[in-house]
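To assess whether the prediction recovers the assembly geometry, we first specified each molecular entity separately, as shown.
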Amino acid sequence: MARVVVDVMLKPEILDPQGQAVQRALPRLGFDGISDVRQGKRFELEVDGPVDEAALARIHDLAESFLANTVIEDFTVRVEEAAEAVK
Amino acid sequence: MTARIGVVTFPGSLDDRDTQRAIRLAGAEPVALWHKDKDLKQVDAVVLCGGFSYGDYLRAGAIARFSPVMEPLLEQAKAGLPVLGICNGFQILTEAHLLPGTMLRNDHLHFICRDQKLRVENAETAWTTDYTAGQEIHIPLKNNDGQYVADERTLDELEAEGRVAFRYLDFNPNGSQRDIAGVTNAAGNVVGLMPHPEHAVEPLIGTGRTDGLPFFTSILKKLVNA
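The predicted structure of the complete assembly is given in tokenized form:
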């Protein structure tokens, strides 16, 4: 079984009020020197069978049509190598 | 015979009963539709009501958009079926790409519930002919994700084509671009807005006015005269 990770982030030009709220809380917590925070989503998909080109293409479609709203979000798809071996 | 207007209930919908009531008060017949329905029971129009379908998981409206009932709805909306999306319903319509843009979390990150002043910018859609263009109305607004965003080109297009149907007046409650509270598709049959006209159809409730009722009388007139 292989894991495919889809990261979804708001596009750079879209305001991220949640990220801003996190960033503003940092000095209060004693974390200095962080000028910006952007918050996103990470999806971990456990894929049955081989992660070949066709499987990745399907996941790309899934990310584009469902996991991300491309009006406001960008996404990346990547295979997490040897997820099992790490355990 | 009067018009039959469907109201879809998704898991997490909240305002289906209020919407049915508003439709009845306007003189039409409400028809309950379920998210698993594969047909629209031959209704003359559909309202997607407010609430938190699927808990707003992933994004507001993102999961409801793939419900079985949305298949015939998408097809018929493109062929001219009048559809009104209120609040979560508006979010579902943008997720389904029937309306442009999308809604982000309110810029101040708080849930907001208030009587909101709006200006009706387009009184020629299927759902707004009982208003006059430029009319100012008060109807309740209640949401978490109400910040309307779209890219500049889309916004310019909407403005140029008169497709900004409603604008927030006096106070922008959520950071929406260009104070946009609701939009229409090019044909004028699909309309979406964040505020809740169905909560302002009787003097006793909502803003104490009946400023939301013309949504439902507009569509009734259109359907009965058709």
